Amino acid sequence: MIGASGQIGGWLMRHLAERGHDVVGTYATVAQPGLERLNAGDPEAANWVRQRGADVVFYPAGFTWVDGCERDPAKARAANCLEPLTLARATLASGGRFVTFSTDYVFDGARGPYGEGDAVGPLNEYGRAKLEAERLLTEELGDRVLIVRTCWVYGPEWQGKNFAYQVVRALREGKILRVPSDQWANPSYGPDVAEATIRLVERGESGLVHVAGPEHVDRVGFGRGVARALGFDESLVVGVPTAELGQGAPRPLRGGLRSEKLEGLLPGMMRGLAAGMADFVEQVRRGRARDPIGC
Ligand SMILES: NC(=O)c1ccc[n+]([C@@H]2O[C@H](COP(=O)([O-])OP(=O)(O)OC[C@H]3O[C@@H](n4cnc5c(N)ncnc54)[C@H](OP(=O)(O)O)[C@@H]3O)[C@@H](O)[C@H]2O)c1
């Protein structure tokens, strides 16, 4: 697994181990016990993959900072398209299957939530690089690749970077959190994204599958749902139009994903926000994630 130190990677590692799979994971900059260091841009990375000879290579990695991608399109394309393509070729050469993650940012946000068959049209460099990766991987690997599109992933994680932690960090100090009032998508609970992905792989599924939560909400609804679940004052989450926020990269406004294909294959895998947050609190209590609230 390339990117085991990240949010989705961390949950993939945990679920794979719990389901009895033998798994080796890597980090790039944030060392964690038991993980090996690997930079996907290193010329030796393809050899590392070939030497492992894994049945499946999961790639929940990349340059995931959307505004950073806008500032450095060459790095965005290298990290989110060319590097996974190189490692996917190495996987194929050693007889394995490749699993990677894409985003609702491949769409223009005019009329989400989107299904797998809807027309794409990315607005920013992150989305363009991800879309190019989808196309090249599909072209070269055919039924040896599974591409999971997801969005607004939240939940317990060791690095504590996702939106739920941002909400907590602001609200526990009584600060107002300004979020875009006109950006819509589906909050997707990280452990569910990981488990659904693994089950798809175990079934031998390939191609493109949307794996996102069942509710389509704006960022204010998302932030307030997180606040409510953790007992914070939800009125501190304040909506501001995207046009006033000065974000570096243009965002698809009406984004989000419909996961009907997943629902047909594996019904009921994705929890809603209230159930996801209840599990989040439980995971923290059991010491399985960084504690954002001191519970
Ligand atoms: N989170 C979301 O809401 C969301 C939505 C749609 C799609 N996705 C996609 O899902 C995937 C996983 O997202 P995430 O939120 O779990 O990301 P994340 O928490 O930012 O984790 C990214 C992982 O990639 C690793 N990485 C970064 N640069 C690398 C490099 N050059 N070589 C090897 N590994 C490298 C990181 O390692 P270190 O941390 O050790 O540096 C980390 O393990 C990404 O492809 C992302 O684009 C995420």
Description:
- The strands form 5 sheets. This protein has a 4-stranded parallel beta sheet with strand order 3-4-5-10, with helices on both faces.
- It has one domain (7-285): NAD(P)-binding Rossmann-like Domain (Rossmann fold, 3-Layer(aba) Sandwich), CATH 3.40.50.
- By secondary structure, it is an alpha/beta fold.
- 40% of the residues lie in helices and 14% in strands.
- Strand 4, helix 5 (125-141) and strand 5 form a beta-alpha-beta unit.
- The protein has helices at residues 7-18, 45-52, 66-71, 73-93, 125-141, 163-171, 190-202, 219-230, 260-265, 273-285; strands at residues 26-27, 36-37, 56-59, 97-103, 145-150, 153-154, 177-180, 184-185, 188-189, 207-210, 217-218, 237-240.
- Helix 1 (7-18) packs across helix 7 (190-202), helix 6 (163-171) packs across helix 8 (219-230) and helix 8 packs across helix 10.
- The chain is globular.
- The two termini are 31 Å apart.
- The protein binds NADP nicotinamide-adenine-dinucleotide phosphate (NAP).
- Residues 2-3, 5-9, 27-30, 38-41, 60-62, 64, 79, 101, 103, 150-153 line the site of NADP nicotinamide-adenine-dinucleotide phosphate (NAP).
